[in-house]
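The instructor's notes for this session suggest beginning with a concrete chain rather than abstract definitions. Hand out the sequence below and ask the class to guess, before any prediction is shown, which regions might be ordered.
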Amino acid sequence: MPCSIDKRDVISVAFVGFASLGGFIMGFDTSVISGVKELPAWKERFGYLNEAGQYAISTSQESLVVSILSAGTFFGALSSALFADGLGRRLGIIVTSIIFMAGVALQVGAPGIAAFAVGRAITGYGLGAMVACIPTYQSECAPKSIRGALVMGSQLATTIGLMVAAVANQAALKVTGEKSWRIPIAIQIAFAGVLCIGMFFLPESPRYYIKKGRNEDALRAISRLRARDETDPTVIEEYEEMVKSAAASELDKSGYLDCFRQGTNKTRTRILTGLGFLGTQQLTGAIANSNSSHMTLIGV
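After discussion, reveal the predicted structure:
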């Protein structure tokens, strides 16, 4: 049965869809470095003059610049609960986007390769925490009838970000001087700034409010998300369902190790299946940050 959207749920779709901007930022940042590190002005800034009289960077420097972002996102994702649970889903996204912008700013103004790498690490940390907070916010705010489709919007936005980064890299080839690499990187501050400012105007997750015992705020948040009055039966029904779910979660004393215990609901199988899909996605090389280097080496 195809999912349907109530006209009054359009506001929820808009709120949740806006948060997908984080996915776009993820895709753009992941891909833009591929072209930036091959720009002559970038190599002149951070590289060395080789025997042929051309500016270049070593393979170890190239690996560092590309891979350190992933290291940052790894630790950012691990610590995302500190932001999402400690500050709230909405404020967590705001703070992590600020961390992301700080890292980007350091990259733009970096005097050397070491500072640039540190900027990439900070950017990665903020990015990893941000993109971990966003699906939580989306899933807790989206109408359950279309929740899956809306949460997957972040993945679509990531793909769009990858494409836009490729266009930006192509455009950078026509720019001379340090602006050629500074602009593609600096523009990410604008993207994250829009997300940061926009999140101030979005409601907090009602499930987060319930978790913190702020039930009246939760009811108001549901009312705003669904564009219905607080006394509307559907709002009250959804609110009561969230309260019951939160109460059940409080009684469940499961730990992280339970994720890898099979049990009656085949938890381990489901976890490993999900990890398998994510792992094989990366192994396909669909996000190939060294493509530009390879193309340059073969003269394309």
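Then share the key points. The first strand starts at residue 48 and ends at 49. Residues 8-202 form a domain with the Growth Hormone; Chain: A; fold (CATH 1.20.1250.20).
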